[in-house]
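hey so u asked for the seq, here:
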Amino acid sequence: MSKDAPYCPVYDSIELLQEKWVLHIVRALLGGPHGFNELSRAVGGANTTTLSQRLEHLERLALVEKTIESTMPPKTRYELTPAGRELQTIIDAIDAWARRHMRRCQEQEARAEAAGQPATPKSGRSAAD
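ran it, structure tokens below
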């Protein structure tokens, strides 16, 4: 969006939420606080640099809170703030939409590929993930 365009909160929200791994991080943290390594496993596939960058960005936006526990060795915990927890409705809406439409979309894509149309990237994630 150009600097001269009027402010659009939907555009800005989509820009944030479409960043790679952001919704995966939010989804994992909706289950409760996680340490960094635990979160990395829950998200699955994000390299540690990218995960750190996304967490720092979500902290700056006050969607995630980082707590360092004074244990030896120190433990870092990440959890959603109230604003971050409000993203539950978005995750729920994506889940409901996916349950209604993704199988048909995947079948349509398979038909298109069989007809020789170029394939699109796939996430490789299952509904159980």
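The domain at 9-114 is CATH 1.10.10.10 (Arc Repressor Mutant, subunit A). Helices lie at 9-17, 22-29, 36-43, 48-60, 82-85, 88-114.
lmk if thats what u needed
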